[in-house]
Amino acid sequence: MSLWEYANPKKFMGWTGPILPWAFGAAGLCLVVGLFWGFFLTPDDFRQGSTVKIIYLHVPAALMAINAWMMMLVASLIWLVRRHHVSALAAKAAAPVGITMTLIALMTGAIWGQPMWGTYWAWDPRLTSFLILFLFYLGYMALWAAIDDPDTAADLTSVLCMVGSVFALLSRYAVNFWNQGLHQGASLSLDKEENVSDVFFFPLLVCIAGFVLLFFALVLLRTRTEIRARRVRALQLSEVR
Amino acid sequence: MIPDLGKYGFEVASAYAVSILLLLVIVGLSWRQSVAQRRVLEAAEARKNG
Fold first, then answer.
1. Of A4, A16, A104, A201, whose CB count within 10 A is highest?
2. B1, B11, B48: residue with CB nearest A111
């Protein structure tokens, strides 16, 4: 059987139904364990004090804000090339989850920035590119809502998604492109010297797993909702005719 | 049990409160929309079948 058959709406509803409770359960477990570990059982940082505990929310949310857009890009490209309706609906379903992650990253970043930098906001390359990414999410969702014909909406939002992916990548690599601004370099690195200390790294890893699983579960749930909405639309059109 | 957050207690607590609230909002909204759409579809299919 081809992999593409799993993207058939009926098959998609069939295989996602049973795994949805497990995905939500695993996400909840990882988030509770990771946040409890990070908040209650890790020490303060010698420079940042207790504000280091914000890392368990800020870093996973920022990571998912970018990766959600990248997932939308892949789904949009599949729609444009193969015209698989479920992929267009999955991209649409991911946007509200992605914008929530972006908002969490922006807000926790501002709250963290105030005591560390003395300001909630600065026009730093990474912060600015994240704000632009947030605006792209808003525009993407508004475009879906503004167009009645679902195929035209999927075409136009796919193009917008491709343009926005430049900013998603920019927000990921902004600190490398411009060696200026307030934001520090990447918290996670393969270079042990640059990576955060193990005592913060392991609970952070659990929190990242929690955010990834929550994103996965929410996108599945929302895609199923979009498929049902599409089916309702088809039934209503057939009643009119 | 509650760790001593020192002078940054408000910042750390508000970051957690805002994030958990936003996560609960997106999960709650997604769940509500899912249930509502399932009911609409069931009603539409019932109308079609009979």
1. A104
2. B11
From B8, B37, B45, residue closest to A229, measured CB to CB: B37
What would the pLDDT profile of A205-229 be if each residue is shown by its tens digit? 999 999 999 999 999 999 999 999 9
In tens, the pLDDT along A2-55 reads 767 767 888 999 999 999 999 999 999 999 999 999 999 998 888 888 999 999
Closest-CA residue in chain B for A51? B12
Q: Is B2 helix (H, G, I), strand (E, B) or coil?
A: coil
Interface confidence: ipTM more than 0.85: yes
Minimal C-alpha gap between B43 and chain A (Å): 9
Among A211, A214, A192, A212, which Cα is nearest to A201's?
A: A192
CA dihedral A116, A129, A137, B35 (to 10 degrees): -30
Give the N- to C-terminal CA distance of chain B in Å, as an integer: 60
From CA B34, how far away is CA A225, in angstroms rounded?
5
Give residue for tokens 């999927």.
A154
What long-range pairs does A144-149 form, CB within 8 A, spacing at least 24?
A144/A92, A144/A95
Residue spans of the domains in chain A: they are 21-180+215-240
Residue contact B19–A61, C-beta within 8 A: yes
